[in-house]
Amino acid sequence: SGTTWTQEIVDMIQQNGDTEKCKRETTYKRHPFLEWFIPEPPSMRLELAEAMPSPRTIKTHLPVQLLPPSFWEQNCKIIYVARNAKDNLVSYYHFHRMNKAMPDPGTWDEFVEKFVTGKVLWGSWYDHVKGWWKAKDKHRILYLFYEDMKENPKREIQKIAKFLEKDLSEEVLNKIVHNTSFEVMKENPMANYTRDFQGVMDHSVSPFMRKGTVADWKNYFTVAQNEKFDEDYKKKMSDTSLVFRAEL
């Protein structure tokens, strides 16, 4: 959905655009992944987050109802990034293919079915995006859209900086826009996951940073699949004011 991208933007903002500071560690170690438990190496557990000085940035993919209550009690700032369902599905499918820690996605047709019925890790996309959308009116949540970030990265980065109460000069802002572009991040070993999880992620199957575009779903969905998906989507999204763009 653009989580890694947003993490890099947040770190760049917090480090005032200092690229060297942002290369201090890989994404995974700069922003501990709350619910992902790996026995080895132990430095990748929750202890990593606990040892960090404030302000800490923590990553999670949890649906809103599973977020630990302490996040609400502490009035934490939360940045949520959502991506249109079809592109999310395509990206997720390829991520499953290259990540051996994830269940085998099966065929494209099978994975579409799993996605639509919510039988994927972290549950239904529909419930996920709607749940956080609803929560944003009650908590300090900045709700972002992947498509907006692609359309106008500078505007969205300014939005994030304002949310983090950071004043950035035009020069720093432009530097962040450049260094968090897909092309630059794809070549950055501290952000592209080529350094973490060797033997777990197989970038020769599909690179972690694959395309980073909007409407790639058109290369995968058949006409029949698309019609069926749209019909189901209408039903599932009929009870929300949330609107996505599947193309720009």
UniProtKB/TrEMBL annotation:
<protein>
    <recommendedName>
        <fullName>Sulfotransferase</fullName>
        <ecNumber>2.8.2.-</ecNumber>
    </recommendedName>
</protein>
<dbReference type="InterPro" id="IPR027417">
    <property type="entry name" value="P-loop_NTPase"/>
</dbReference>
<dbReference type="GO" id="GO:0005737">
    <property type="term" value="C:cytoplasm"/>
</dbReference>
<comment type="similarity">
    <text>Belongs to the sulfotransferase 1 family.</text>
</comment>
<dbReference type="GO" id="GO:0008146">
    <property type="term" value="F:sulfotransferase activity"/>
</dbReference>
<keyword id="KW-0963">Cytoplasm</keyword>
<keyword id="KW-0808">Transferase</keyword>
<dbReference type="Pfam" id="PF00685">
    <property type="entry name" value="Sulfotransfer_1"/>
</dbReference>
<feature type="domain" description="Sulfotransferase">
    <location>
        <begin position="1"/>
        <end position="240"/>
    </location>
</feature>
<dbReference type="InterPro" id="IPR000863">
    <property type="entry name" value="Sulfotransferase_dom"/>
</dbReference>
